[in-house]
Design brief:
Elements lengths: L5 H15 L6 H10 L5 H4 L3 H13 L3
Helix pairs in contact: 1-2, 1-4
Length: 64
């Protein structure tokens, strides 16, 4: 069963938006950007293999 809270959803949504921006090249960079923006617990949310894979796919599809 998958449970989610609003904060985790918001962090993932922001991470996906950053990945699609074309400004980043690695999941670690996205994590650092989220922390820099003040998203508490971003590292914990991004520990999920599913989330990391989804971010990596977005990074790959939007790289220049």
């Amino acid at each position: 069963m998958f449970t989610e809270n609003r904060h985790d959803h918001a962090v993932r949504t922001r991470a996906y938006a950053l990945a699609e921006s074309g400004r980043f090249h690695a999941v670690r960079e996205i994590e650092q950007a989220l922390v820099g923006e003040g998203w508490p617990g971003a590292g914990t949310v991004l520990q999920s293999g599913y989330v990391r894979q989804a971010i990596a796919e977005r990074l790959a599809s939007h790289s220049h």
